[in-house]
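User: Hi! I'm working on a homework problem where we have to compare a predicted structure to a textbook description. Could you give me the structure for the chain below?
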Amino acid sequence: MKILGREFVAEQMPSGWVICERWRDGVLSLIDNEPSNRKHVQLKLQNLSDCLIKDCQKSGVSPEQYWQAHNGNALTQLISKLQ
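Assistant: Happy to help. Predicted structure tokens:
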């Protein structure tokens, strides 16, 4: 799922499904370290999209500017709030 120009995917790990960010070179970066079932991860991914889009619109900046201001730690913290 593309969110503000970045790609996020649900990936199956031995312990369950997690959310990862797919970088341009194809490398996956784990952003959700709470494995769950596929349906729950898809729901978290949709909620993540809704939250990020609303936050970006609220801040009144472009997606590029938004990502410059919000690093990976902020993304991980947001995911933990969605659980």
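For your comparison, note the following. The longest strand covers residues 6-13. The beta strands are 2-3, 6-13, 16-22, 28-30. Good luck with the assignment!
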